[in-house]
Amino acid sequence: MPKIKIDGIEVNCPEYWTILDAAKFIGINIPTLCYHEGLSMWGGCRLCIVEIGKDKNTKMVSSCTFPVQEGLYIRTASKKVIKSRKMILELLIAQNPTAKVLQDLASKIGLNKIRFKPKWETCIYCGLCIRMCEEQMMAKAIGFVNRGNKLKITTPFDKNSEDCQRCGGCMYICPACTIRCDGAHPESVLCNGCYNILQPTCLDVYDNYACWMGLKGECGICVTTSTNQKINEKREI
Predict the structure, then answer these.
(1) Alpha carbon distance 87, 15 (integer Å)
(2) Strand partners, 208
(3) Given this model, what pLDDT does residue 109 score?
(4) What is the pLDDT of residues 143-160, one digit of tens each?
(5) Can you spell out the DSSP letters for the chain?
(6) What's the rounded Cα separation, in Å, for the pair 143 and 161?
(7) pTM of the model as a whole
(8) Which of 56, 78, 192, 228 has minimal Cβ neighbours within 10 Å of its Cβ?
(9) From CA 162, how far away is CA 81, in angstroms rounded?
(10) Residues 6+ apart with CB under 8 A from 57
(11) Residue 136's CB: how many other CB atoms inside 10 A?
């Protein structure tokens, strides 16, 4: 069994596991969007990215598709990772600001600004509905059409599909179908209605979320500890 180190914790993993599987096994939360346990892996949204490698030889990979390997060193919440996730989430919210799932993720990750012009579309192209229709409902009634800014999800030739069972599976799994609390026509792009006022502080001190007092980065212990250490050092001098 490959042995990996994830956020400083050594784990022996089955060879068929991904980084996301290993993180879930030891209780480390990695945000996901296009991932679902009952569907095939896709890695399209990139929200679950992590940093692998050490020192300058690091790279970003999607944890839901990257298989575990012997000696793999992983950081799930470094400055680089958090910055990248916030950028990805900014783009997704600019695409579809009305999705409650995205707004909740923004509040949880500490995103409080959208720098891109909102498109107010009703789809974020995560592909969950397509995989649900094909893999769970055995219908394969919808799929991606076109590319680039013309990309969309529809039935063949935009006509009513005889393969569609009207089961509602696509709507059930769609993250864009859950409207944010202030309705389908909100005044602001970003809600932050559930924004946590206890801002993550570990990144400012350790270049990585390092707190084990509940949810990572939410307790403020790292800054308090660092401040006390500096005070004590000055007193000793």
Answers:
(1) 32
(2) 78
(3) 86
(4) 999 998 899 999 999 999
(5) --EEEETTEEEE--TT-BHHHHHHHTT-----SS--TTS-----S-TTEEEEEETTEEEEEETTTPBP-TT-EEESSBHHHHHHHHHHHHHHHHH-TTBHHHHHHHHHHT-----S-----S-----HHHHIIIIISS----EEES-GGG-EEE-GGGS--TT-----HHHHH-GGGSB-TT-SS-SSS---TT--SS---HHHHHSB----SSSTT-S-HHHHHHHHHHHHHHHH-
(6) 11
(7) 0.83
(8) 56
(9) 44
(10) none
(11) 15
Q: Is the pLDDT of residue 69 over 60?
A: yes
Query: Scanning the structure block, which residue is given the tokens 């069994």?
Result: 1
Give the chain's domains with CATH numbers: 1-77 (3.10.20.740), 128-176 (3.30.70.20), 198-237 (no CATH)
Q: 79-95 and 100-109 are packed helices; what angle lies between their axes, rounded to 10 degrees?
A: 150
Identify whether the C-beta of residue 21 lies closer than 8 Å to the C-beta of residue 31: no
Distance CA 74, CA 68 (A): 10
